[in-house]
Amino acid sequence: MRVVHRTVRVPACLSIAATTFVLTAVHAQDVAESAQPEEVIVTGSYLRVARQADLASPTQVLDADALARTGAPGLDRIINNETANLGSVGGVQDLDGGGQDNRASRSANLRGLGPASTLVLLNGRRVASQESDALGNNYVNLASLVPMLDIERVETVLDGASALYGSDAIAGVINIITNDKFEGLATNVQYTHIEDAPGYVAQLKVGGGGERIHTVASLSYEFQDNLQNADREVTNFSNTSGSSQPGNFTLSARPRTASGGDVIIDNGVNGPINYSQLYDQRVAATGNPLVQVADPHCTVAGTGGIFAPRTAGAQFPDGACRFSFQAQNPIKPESKLLLGHLTSTYDLSDDHELFLETRYYRQSARRFGVASVPLSNGSPVVPATNPFNPFGVNVTFSGRVLGVNADYLVQKPDITGTHVVLGARGDISDRWGYSTDVIYSEDVADTSNLDTDLLLLQHALNGFGGPDCRITFTGPAASEQPGQGNCVYFSPFGADQLNNDPRAMYNLRSPTETRSEVGHQLAEFVINGELFDLPAGPLGIAFGAQHRQEKIDARFDDFIQSGRAGFAGKSLSGTGDRTVTGAFVELGVPVLTSLDVQLAARYEDYGKFTTTDPKVGLNWRATDRFSLRASGSTAFRAPALSQSASAAVTSGVGQTRDPLDPTDTGTFRVINRINNPNLRPEESSNFNVGFTWEAIDQLSLSADYWSFKFQDQIAAESADQVLLRDPNGPQAIRDQFGRLLGVNVGYFNSGETETAGVDLKLDYRFELFGAHTFLIQNNLTWVERYEVQVGPGQPVVDGVGRRNSNNPGFPTPQWRDNLTVGWEYDRSSASVTMRYTDAVLDDVFLPITATPVNEIGSWTVFDLQFQQRFGADEKTRLTIGAVNAFDRAPPTATFTGYLSGLADALGRQAYLRIEHSL
Predict the structure, then answer these.
(1) What pTM did the predictor assign?
(2) Three-state secondary structure along 456-496?
(3) pLDDT digits over 611-639, tens only?
(4) Dihedral, CA atoms, 50, 56, 58, 63, nearest 10 degrees?
C-alpha cells in the first residue's frame, strides 16, 4: 500500500457529460456502499484517510469523460467556461492588460483575484512557467502541461490553500491528475473547424509493465492556425494610434524653399497649403517655436493616414496623422504544440516503491502583427539636405517605418518546458506512511523579432542607407557621400512610402533576440498516519517540509540593451534567485462519527520575509442525505522574482495618452518596468460555508457561500496615472522637443480587494423509457461583492457588474451560469450545454471615480455534442459537436472589441473526433 495525499472513490455521477467543473461533496454513505477503491491523489489534504467527505473545502472535479465532452483540445480552452473563473489572460490580443498574445497560453483566475493567485499543480507538484501578464504577474500556462488524453481528472479547491501548499494558493488550487495505472494503447484525433483558423490535435497514450514496474507514456501534437482581427466583425474596427504611417513632423524653424520662399504643398485632396504661414501663425499664437504638423499626404487615399485636428475646428494639417493598427493584429497566433508526459513506478517491495515523472513541452508559434511598428523610443531627424524633405529645414519625425510595404511583421517565439520528478513512497507501518521526492522544473522562452535600428535609420535619413554603404562605429566612412554610389536616402514621407529605394529598407530592420528562463529545484517529504484512536475514530496527522530554490534569468541581445530598438525600447539583462524553506502540519480530528475537523498550518521563510498561514475546516454529516461544511484560512502570494529580485529592467509597449497633447487619443509608447526589492507578499483571509443535500436518489443540490479579503495586492503603476499625476515628472521620458517617448513605472503593494458570492450546483440523473438515461446539471456563480481599492488611502470601486478596466480588478459579471442536458441510450449519447455570462458596465478610459453608463452585453452560447460507440467492446468512439453552435459573436467592448477573459471571438467551433483504445 503506497502513501498518497488522500484516498477517494469518484462517484459515478461525475462521469456524465459536463462542460464545466462540477461541485462535489461525497458522503460517507457513498463511500461505505461502493466497492473497495484504488488509491488516488485528491487535492486539499495530506491526511491518510479514506473519505473525501472529511474535506471541508468546496472541491470541483472534472473527469476525463467530462473533459472530452467539452470538445476542447486542451485545458486552456476550458478554463473560461468555469463560472468561478473571471478574467483569464493570455493567448489572444488583449489591449486591456492581458498576457502574452504571441503564443498559445491561458491562465486561471479564480474569483478574479489575479492570474498569479491560483496555484496550478501537476499531480500535486509545482510546475515552472515563465508566462506573465502585462503587470508582471506570473502564471502557469494551462496549454503547456500534459496531453488531454493523459488526464484522469482535474480537481479544483475553491478555498485558500497556503496552509498546505504555500505561496500562490490565495484563490484556490487547480490540480491536474494523470492516470499512472493505465494499461493498453489509446489514440485520439480531432479536427476543429474555426472559420479562417482551423486546427487539429493527435494524441497517443500507452501503458504497461511487469510484476514490479509500470510505465505510462503519452504524446500529443496540436496545430492551431492564426486568426486576425480583420477576420471577425467584432474586432475589425478602427483603433487608431498617434504613431502613424504616414507620420507626423515637428518643425523647429520656418519652412522655406531652396530660394527662401514659402513652402506650399498641394496633396491633391486639401488644396494648396502654405506651411510657412501655418508655422508663423502657430508660433505667434503659442510662443512655442516647435510646431507639429501631420504628414502632407496623410489624407491621400491609399496612404493609411487618418487626420486628427489639434483643436476643434483646426484645419489640415494642423494636428496629427493617426493610423488604425487593429485589422492587421491577431486575435490568436499560429501555434504548434508538442506535449510529452511519462510516469513510471517500480516496486521495491510490497510496502515501498520508487516513482518517476517527466514532462516535456515545446511550442513554436508565429504572431502575425501590423507591419508598421511605431518609433516609441526615439525622435529621428530628417535633415534639410534630404532631397525628399519638402520643408527645407530640419524636421523631427514621429511615426512608423518598419515593414512599410509588408503585409505583416512576424514574431517567432519558441518555448520549451522540462519537468522531472524522482521520489519514493511507502508504508512505515500499518498506520504510517511517507512520500519524498526531488523535482527539477524549468521553462525557457526564446523570441525573435524585427525592430527599427534608430542609429541606422538616422544614417539612412542622412543619405547613408543601404547594405553596401560603409558605416563604422563613429559614423559613415570618409569615402562615402550621402545619396551617392552605394549610399541612398530614406524618405519617411507619405508621398514616397511606396517609392523608396529598396536598399534603404536594410537600415530599418534589425533582428532582436530575447531569452527568458525560469525554474525551480526542490526537495520535499511528507509523513502521514494516525496518532491514536479517539471515540469517533483515529486522529490523523500529516507533516512535512520543503526546500525550494527558484531562479529567473532574462537575457536581451546587445541591440536591445543598447537602447537603439525603436519599438521595444531599452531592456537590461538580469538574473534573480531566492531560497524558500517551509514546513507544515495537518490534523484530522473526528469529533463525532458525523463531524470531522481539519486543522492545518504552514510556515515559510523567503529570507526577506516569513509567513505563517493557518486553516480550520469542519464537515458535519447531519443525516445520510444532508451535510454541512465550513472552512476559514489565510493565504499568501510571494512577489514574483521578475517583480522583486531580478536585476533586469524590462521594457514593453503599451497604449498611453499624453495629457499635454490634445490630439493624442492613445499611442503605443515604451513602458519600462523596474522591480522593487521591498515588495511585501500579498495576503488574504477567506471563509466558506456550504451544504450538500441529496433530496432523492440521483438528485443533489450543493451551495457554498465564499468570501475573500485580499490585501497588499502587488500591482504595477499605471502609465496613464503616472502621466496624469505629473506629465513632466521624472518618470515621463520625453525628447528634446517635449514629445512623450515612454514612461518608467514600478511595482508597489496596492490596496485591498474583497469579494464574496454564492456557488450553486444542481445534479439530477434519471431514467425514462427503459434504458434511456437523462442528466440535468446546472452550475451557477453569483458575485455579491467585488470591491477593489487602487492603493492605500485610495477610492474603493464597487466592481460587481463592471469591466474594471480603470482599476486593478478584472471583469466581473454578477451572474454566470452553465446548464447541461444530457442523454444516453445503448451506444449513443448527446448533450446540449447553455453558457450564460451576465452584462458588465464598460469603464475603459474613465476616471476611477466616474460612473460608467455604456454596457457590454450579456453572452449566451450553446454547445452541442453527439457520440457513437462502436465494436463489441465499444472501444472505438466517434464524436461530432460544436462549441458556440449558433455562431454567437461576443458582445462589443470599447477599444478591445470584446472581453477575451470572459468570451471569445472564434465563433462556431465544429469538431470531429475519433478515438480508439486497445
Answers:
(1) 0.89
(2) HHHHHHCCCECCCCCEECCEECCCCCCCCCCCECCCCCHHH
(3) 999 999 999 999 999 999 999 999 999 99
(4) 0
CA gap 617, 632 in Å, rounded: 6
| Contacting residues for 285 by C-beta, under 8 A, at least 6 apart | none
Do 443 and 464 belong to one domain?
no
644 found inside a domain:
no
User: Which amino acid is located at 454 in the chain?
Assistant: L
How many structural domains does the chain have? 2
Residue 63 has pLDDT above 50, yes or no: yes
Residue 734 main-chain phi, psi, to 5 deg: -125, 155
320 and 437 share one domain: no
- Within a domain: residue 18? yes
The strand pairing partners of 550, in sequence order, are 520, 578
pLDDT score of 179 more than 60: yes
Quick check: 890 and 899 in contact, CB under 8 A? yes
pLDDT, one tens digit per residue, over 890-901 is: 999 998 999 999
Cα(502)–Cα(505) distance, rounded to whole angstroms?
Answer: 6
Most distant CA atoms of the chain, gap in Å: 107
What's the full length of the chain, in residues?
Answer: 918
Kindly state whether residue 558 falls inside one of the protein's structural domains. yes
Assess whether the previous peptide bond of 792 is cis (omega < 30° from 0): no
Res. 668: pLDDT tops 90: no
DSSP string across 568-632: T---B-EEEEEEEEEEEEEEEEEEETTEEEEEEEEEEE-SS-EEEEEEEEEEE--SSSEEEEEEE
Give per-residue pLDDT as tens, 715-760.
877 788 788 889 999 998 887 778 788 888 888 888 899 999 999 9
CB atoms within 10 A of CB 729: 11
CB 619 within 8 A of CB 629: yes
Strand partners, 273: 265
Task: Please give the residue range of the domain that contains residue 537.
Answer: 12-232+333-368+413-448+514-639+680-713+750-917
What kind and span of H or E run contains 558?
helix 558-561
Q: How many CA atoms lie within 13 A of 196 on its CB side?
A: 15
Residues 142 and 108 grouped into a single domain: yes
Residue in this structure with the C-alpha cell 533582428, named with its chain if needed: 511
* Share in percent of the chain as helix, strand, coil (round to 5): 10, 50, 40
- Reported in sequence order, the residue ranges of 428-500 that DSSP labels E, i.e. its strands, are 432-451, 471-472, 475-476
Q: Residue with C-alpha cell 541606422? A: 456
| Coil vs helix vs strand at 336 | strand
How many C-beta atoms surround the C-beta of residue 915 within 10 A?
Answer: 19
Grid cell at residue 797: 470601486
Q: Are 75 and 85 in contact (CB under 8 A)?
A: no
Considering the domain architecture, whether residues 555 and 703 belong to the same structural domain is answered as yes
Residue 37 binned pLDDT confidence (cut-offs 50, 70, 90): very low
823 lies in some domain: yes
Q: Which residues pair with 352 in a beta bridge?
A: 426
Q: Which residues are within 8 A (CB) of 26 and not within 5 positions of it... i.e. 6 or more apart?
A: 8, 9, 11, 51, 52, 53
